[in-house]
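Student: Hello, beginner here. Can you help me understand the protein record under this note? Any guidance would be welcome.
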Amino acid sequence: MDFAISVKDVFQLGKDNHPWEKFAMPNGAGHIFVATEFDLGVSDLLHYHDEPHLSLILNGGVIDKRKNVENEKVSGGLMFFHAGENHQTINRIFPNKYMSLSFNWDFLRQKSISEAKLDCLITKSPGSKFTLLKIYKELLANDEFSDASIEMLLFNLMDKKKIIKNSSPIWIKNVNQFLNDKWNKELS
């Protein structure tokens, strides 16, 4: 992987090969892309995104290739890409349909969310895939409530309280303390 092109160039090269739609997120948060690929194409090229970006595989499957690591992602798979991170998304199961969100830097600064925090909020939250599917459903509905619903869902996606911490529940700490305190007693 030596030379990467901008994702804008990838879209330009592949505009006739696969259908895709671009939607503006409410309040300048960024853009949502929904694309379907029916065979191998230019999207398999090494590329990068100018802004933090995530993709949810709606149907099909891909190989997510970054540096020397390859991961297979199928329907329901979620991928987060840092701005400027070179990668390949190689289509493997067709038709491959995915929804991508590209976040505007100004929006992230206004919400005091760093790129690392955004990655953590999305990948560590058990409900993020479900929230992304709700966003997709709102795009399909495209009614007078869709913009407000998508905005609400974006705020839900970036809710800092939904991160799973890697710490034990308090009751486990209490049991551990109890066992340590009563190490020489017979417990019932």
